[in-house]
Model the fold of this input.
Amino acid sequence: MMNNLQEWPEPIIRVQSLSESGLSMIPDRYVKPLSDRPIINRSESGNNEGDDGVNIPLIDLTGLTDDETGLPPTTMDRISSACREWGFFQVVNHGVSPSLMDRARETWRSFFHLPMEIKQSYANSPKTYEGYGSRLGIEKGAILDWSDYYFLHYLPLSLKDYNKWPASPDSCREVIDEYGKELVKLGGRIMKVLSVNLGLKEDRLQNAFGGDNLGACLRINFYPKCPQPDLTLGLSSHSDPGGLTILLPDHQVPGLQVRRDGRWITVKPAPHAFIVNIGDQVQVLSNANYKSVEHRVIVNSGMERVSLAFFYNPKSDIPIKPVEELVSEEKPALYPPMTFDEYRLFIRLNGPKGKSQVESLKSPRCTCD
Done:
């Protein structure tokens, strides 16, 4: 089916160009239904969402190395409860150098401020999705998000194509390579912790992913200033389709919101922390012991925002299903086997749709929450 998707259904408009044109009202294509609009800047009423001191768990990973999950039991417990109750947590002392994190973010910020003709030379299509883009799904007439992005493959090596990575700024390809290498290592360490916390051997989840033959890709999000941030979203509500997401947020501008108990909590990033969240594939492997959670991004009228989402994914063509050790008569397998290739096709066709994909897969006899 993807082979028929050569072009986007309408002419692509770069959101950054709209923002820089100085318009005072956003086009109708970006105005969300009333039920999806965020509540922005209500601090004068004392009811600003996410500003009541609630934040996702912040976890210190000192002691976690490639060779051992040397974390104190209390830290292991905190990660376990974050995966079960939040689906999100922040990590510090994670082994990735702060200077590399800053360099990666600011290199990409520089890319988005290059002349349009340079960026356009990397424009993507629905067929490959790789490159410079401004929309996710291919639904004609869809309400769009207020963001541009760049998507690229890091693993497997068969999909890693330097020619599809920006040649400018000068250091861009080198920085992407170094950053990707470090985040693959960090993803592997976190997977071991998740395995052990489920009562499994430390390499169990990784092996179910395909061992060393995993997939990894990077999506850089650019959220330009928006004159009416209360009418739109930078990224609509969704759960991540892959395995784990390791997000480098903008250190100056909050924007990520996580859904918890029916309300949206704005994540306050800690300095040089990564935000880690469970994707749908780990929810499936864990038989829903771990939860992928809906999240979205709000935009800002005064400041642009750049974030880097690194997706640590299973090998794309092996069936993913609940691991046998977590299946019992009391808790049968909640999901049928499905490859990640089949799974993400749904996302590519439909765009972000909350948690409708992973929920629709559940066996009809399942009544779990």
Observations:
- The first strand starts at residue 58 and ends at 60.
- The first helix runs from residue 15 to 20.
- Confidence is low (pLDDT under 50) at residues 42-51, 364-369.
- The radius of gyration is 20 Å.
